[in-house]
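Subject: Sanity check before I submit

Could someone independently write out the structure tokens for this chain? I want to compare against mine line by line before I put it in a report. The sequence has 173 residues.
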Amino acid sequence: MTEHNGHNGNKALRWKQNRQIFKDVEFPSGAIADLQRVDTQDMIAEDGSIPDTFYAMVMEQEQAQSRGEAFNVSGAEAKEFLKTQTYLTVQAARKAFVSPRIADEADYENDVIAIADLTSADKQFLWGWLTSGGTPAEALRRFRQAQQGGSVVAAPSMPSVLPASVAGNGDNG
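---
Independent answer below. Compare away.
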């Protein structure tokens, strides 16, 4: 076996070494983290608990956005959409955070935070960053423009923000 990068040919270690870590990503709350990209489409496809109605709503949202129309859901659909979007964001955060890591219980001395440490704005920013491509700085600029009423183009693969009828109903933790 030939030695490569000091890993004695271990391809898994080389693969891990080559992943891109984005250092010092600043969140809307001002918190800083090191993140890695997560393939959200693969994550969703692998997760067996996502309701089919969510996929239909995502497709409807993408079609409405492509026509320049607002996407609105209400009642039980809005509640289900919010619940699923929150679940997906939590799962993505667990995979994306390199430092600090995210666990069920915070252990601040060992560089571990709980999902409850992220504000709603931080969670929304994270999902937008993961689904937008681009750099963390570009994603934060787009997020802040959206918060200030500027124009932002939604990510084509998944909704980067909740539908207008749901957005005001998020939690802060």
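---
OP: Matches mine. For the report I'm noting this point. Residues 1-5, 150-173 have pLDDT under 50 and may be disordered.
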